[in-house]
Specification:
Blueprint (H helix, E strand, L loop, with lengths): L2 E4 L9 H5 L4 E3 L6 E3 L3 E3 L2 E5 L5 H10 L5 E4 L1
Antiparallel strand pairs: 1-5, 1-6, 2-3, 4-5
This protein binds iron/sulfur cluster.
């Protein structure tokens, strides 16, 4: 199963990922950084295992991220 990894602390809150796939990415009103919905934080990296049908939009989000803090591991 694919896994999303996000270095949330480095997020600049540009909103691109949430425009591409709002089901999984949401900019927080509290700190202006993007939250990986249902993600779990381990040592500063937010992580979530996703199903194969969510792979494509999350790969698009990773590609669009200007600071390259979203990684998809297959
Ligand atoms: S695309 Fe990257 S920098 Fe922009 S809100 Fe999403 S995670 Fe943050």
């Amino acid at each position: 199963m694919p896994k999303i990894l996000q270095q949330r602390a480095k997020c600049i809150g540009c909103n691109l990922c949430s425009e591409i796939w709002p089901l999984r990415w949401r900019v927080s009103r509290v700190d202006g950084k993007c939250t990986l919905v249902d993600g779990v934080e381990k040592k500063g990296i937010w992580q979530l295992v996703i199903s194969a049908d969510e792979l494509s939009p999350n790969e698009q989000a990773a590609k669009a991220c200007p600071v390259k803090i979203i990684k998809i591991v297959r």
